[in-house]
Structures are given as structure tokens and as C-alpha cells.
Amino acid sequence: MKYALVTGGSRGLGRAICCKLAEMGIPVLINYQSNQAAAEEVRDIIRSNGGEAELLRFDVSNESEVTEVLSQWESNHPEDYIAYLVNNAGIRRDNVMFMMPTSDWQAVMNTSLNGFFYVTRQLLPKMMMRKHGGRVVNMASLSGLKGIAGQTNYSAAKAGLIGATKALAQEAAARNVTVNAVAPGFIETDMTKDLPQEELQKLVPMKRFGKPEEVAALVGFLCSDAASYITGEVISINGGLY
Ligand code: NAP
User: Which one of 8, 25, 143, 240 is at 20 to 30 Å from 188 when CA atoms are compared?
Assistant: First the structure.
């Protein structure tokens, strides 16, 4: 059986992506860091809609935790593999660079960039060995494409993720594994709830923030058979904001 793993699946974009993939008939592993109640809610919604979902708690930025939990899952599921990996977990710790504590620089890099590395490296061998290949979708950001003042840590992590996406796409292509990135602009989630939405949405040509379900539809497409020849791409989803 082919499973999907969505890191940071308990809230926001990850939650909508878990629901979308489950709707496509894929059994989903919902990863989260600490918010078990939110993760259980996603699992219950999926199950009540007839889908399959399980929780898989680990901190993507903790290498030994990632290795331990995913190795355990793999040894408990010898006939199955994670064919769809959505590296979505991410955090913001905004500050102008001259005032940024080292801990905030490291926390953001460790989650978005190192987290991608730890999780993907662990799952790639099985994906590349299987005939049906796999899909890796990395959650980048407009911030990683253009750079945003006050987000040097976040822009660097997301730009790094975009570079890694393009390089890994070339390594994995011959094994039928596609690797793409999605770069959202402003989307309505917990991550953006402290931002002045009324002001910021004036900057967006579509004059609104996006919905998590709109991003989930794009991730669902990239995971579908219809996207089998798309790899190494970064697809923006931002209401026209560049
Ligand atoms: P969110 O609402 O703050 O949710 C973050 C999710 O990531 C939660 O499920 C959280 O788990 C999980 N998480 C955080 N650190 C983790 C860790 N170390 N290990 C495992 N899980 C962890 O964020 P969001 O807006 O949905 O953002 C999702 C992704 O999209 C992020 O990578 C973000 O950078 C990117 N993005 C968002 C926007 C936007 O406008 N919202 C725009 C561009 C890119 P818990 O529930 O357990 O805390």
C-alpha cells in the first residue's frame, strides 16, 4: 500500500493537504510536533469522510527522532511504503537581521531546511526502489523566491529548499520520483494570523489572502498521475503577488 506523509499536518496548509490526499484515496500519516488535539481532529475528519489516517508525531528538526519514528513505521509496514511526501512543517521567527538571535536563525533553518533533509533522506530509498516511484512536494514560499525584509532566516531556509528541490529532482528522476516545490504568498492560517491582513491584502492583485484548500488542490495535483512529467519545478500560488 502507498501512504502519504504530510509533515505539519495538524494545522493550516498541512491540515488541508491531509484532507485533500485522503479524498484522493491515499492513506495519510499526519505528522505534528506538539498539538495532538489538532492532529486528532484532522484524523477524525478524514475518517468520518471514509478516508484512512493515522498520527505520526515527531519533530522534523530532530534528526534522531525522525530516524527513530520513520524506521519504526517502516519496520511495522514491510509491505507498504510512503510514496507521497509533503515537506510542509515550517515556522516563522521574524526579525531584522541585526537584531536576530542565533536561536531564531537556527530554529527556522532546522525546521524548514534540515527537517526536509532528515525526513526525505530517510524515505527516498524505498521510493526510488519501488516500480511506482513517488512524489516529493516541498512547501517553499514567495519569501524564498524574492526575499522579504524581516525574514532573512525564513527567506534563506525557503530559498535553500528550492535549490534542494531542483537538485534532488535530477537525482531522483530516473527512478520515477518527482520532486517539486510550491511557493505560496499570503494564505490564511495560524502562521499569518498576527499579520495586518487588511493592509497586506491591498498589495495582492487578487485583493485577498489565499485559502489553505487552494494550496492543497495544487499539492494534490502534483501528487496525482496527471503530474507525472513535472519535476524540479517551483509553482507559485499567490494571487498575483510577486
Ligand atoms: P501553521 O498554521 O503555523 O502550521 C504549522 C504546522 O507545522 C503545524 O502543523 C505544526 O505542528 C507543524 N510544525 C511546526 N514545527 C514543526 C516541527 N519541528 N516538526 C513537526 N511539525 C512541525 O503554518 P502554515 O501556515 O500552515 O504553514 C505551513 C507551511 O507553509 C510552512 O512551511 C510555511 O512556511 C509555509 N508557508 C505558509 C504561508 C502562509 O501564508 N501561511 C506562506 C508561504 C509558505 P503543531 O500543530 O504540532 O504545532
Answer: 25
